[in-house]
Amino acid sequence: MHTRPGHSRPLGAHWDGEGVNFALFSAHATRVELCLFDEGGNETDRFELPERTGDVWHGKLPGLAPGQLYGYRVDGPWAPNRGHRFNSRKLLIDPYARALHGSIRWNVALFGHDTQDPEEPSRLDSAPFMPRCVVVEPEYDWRGDQPPSIAWSRTLIYECHVKGTTIKHPEVAEDARGRYAGLVSPAVINHLKELGVTAVELMPVHHAGIEEHLARSGLTNYWGYATIGFFAPDTRFATGNQPGGVVAEFRDMVRAFHDAGIEVILDVVYNHTPEGGPMGPTFSFRGIDNASYYRLNPADAGRYLDFSGTGHTINTQHPRIRQLVVDSLRYWAQEMHVDGFRFDLAPAIARPHYEFDPAARIFELIEQDPVLSGKKLIAEPWDLGPDGYRLSGFPLGWSEWNDRYRDVIRRYWRGDTGQVGEFASRIAGSSDIFGASRGPTASVNYVCSHDGFTLRDLVSYSRKHNDANGESGRDGPNEESHNWGTEGPSRDRRIVRTRERMRRNFVATLALSNGIPMWLGGDEVGRTQNGNNNPYCQDNETSWTDWELGPADKEFLDFVKRCFELRRGNAVFRRRQHLDDADSLTVRWLRPDGEDMLPTDWNNPQIRSLAAHLDARSVLATDEEGEPQTAHTVFLMFNGEARNRTFKVFNHGPGFCWTEVLNTACPHDPRAVREPEVRLAPHSLVLLQLEEIPCPPPTPPTNRSRSSERQRS
User: Fold this and answer.
1) Which uninterrupted H or E stretch holds 325?
2) Catalytic: which of 159, 234, 249, 344?
3) Which candidate in 380, 523, 524, 615 is catalytic?
């Protein structure tokens, strides 16, 4: 077999029916060798890529076909102090590989440097411990698949882990549990549809590596936030072991979600890889062209700029590395049919010099791309670089995780003073953060995410319990105390009732807030991590969802469904304009006594309760996709106090009647409100909906009714 010159485009390995063209970018290499392997992992041939066009090395091998396993060895200077770490004894992953076969097995041979003398290159061959790249069959029958194209205002995101969601699900076939196939089993699809989910946001599914400290501790990179294959679906979640078969399995999953009307959003990590700092291993980028793929420290090229907290940062300053990121996004959108992306530590990819730049070239490339510009784009708007907290700093068309929403909702329901002003702003869509031009859908609202406590743990623990992670509890966010009662599970009925009410408060507030709600998968069935708020390395019961529901879990699940059903059926909770940007017809903020909130009230630490009257007449007739909208006028009351609070009901005059459709202190079927006042239990929320029907007369007070009212409170 003889290599031909081939072509420098496209990058990666591509079969054209006659053979496979290989193309690899490396600006500083002196030689690139292509290694071929059989299915047993044995090297069968080695070829030097014969051509170099610019900084792309390329060649074509006739006769090769999909399923072929390969990897690269790249030669060049070993000069760590100048940023060059070439070592041809290391088998390297193609950055454009469409699939990988096998996984990284930890061994000292994975280091490019000599571990006894880091200034010298290692002489050990890493091939026995590395996965192989796979030439992938490009054809796939999508069977007419079409994206659901859900309007942002109708979106409900369900953040979940492919394995953790289904590994213990009793109604998922055993061989599909923890796999792409299990996630689209009828039981899971039906569950998501009943919740009203319109998009699953999958924690990283790009092929992940493992960090050294985890490997040495006998732990694993369960979450996957250390991706090494930007085009390759992670084989951990495949049912079969056929080289490249994971690509079809992933596509099968996407097609099944689309058939159910559910979009697929990928959590993508383009800010770092598992290669770590200068003393880390060599899997791919470091050995292909360290000085191009990573941000080197201008004062010391032997070290990196670290905006990710992992010891290094991917160099999106370089046009070829920007191309790598954009090509990866386009591949997943165009050839894998995904509907959007959530960017981990997003500011790190938009620092063209040192500071974050909202007009960075990578944003322009995404906005100008005809495929990507129409996808859902979500930023985690912070990184670990200087001035790294960039909430509201992203371009028009992007949405952002709003941690200020999370924090104030938690503080308000905990009973902190001085929260009502910001609490109202978050419910209204956070115009004070994002401005009128971006609208409420710029804000991804959430109470819990993979980063932190689950909802059950939020109301059960006052501190993190992360000892099993092996970092002496130093890892994970330092969350404020939110437990009601004793630390951890409790048998005290009063404590249990309080915690259940708090869980209902959180989901009701999320569902009824302007913006895009994101729900942490498993919270609806009471998932607990036993106080571990950072189980990134725990591939075990700590992280997996337990689907065996007790009576309280079933009741809460029904309540969650009810909350999102109310949101889905009423466009006043899904506005495209901020509540506080329109005239008074849109919203009136009221005190419990029925009077309008005054400017002095918003900052009054004694005020912990308020109401919002949301008028249906201000809602547009159609959503942004032109679909008709149904709207109902509502009266929303929040009691953030530790005592009962009576609210005067907004009076619409004769011919109208309020119906209580939601009460977090006493879940029940909708019922007519007969009195001009409503009494709320401590720390509770009540939602009234206006009906155009004659209001029944007030119920005469009786000893029994007073007793019932006390019991409800």
Assistant:
1) helix 319-334
2) 344
3) 380
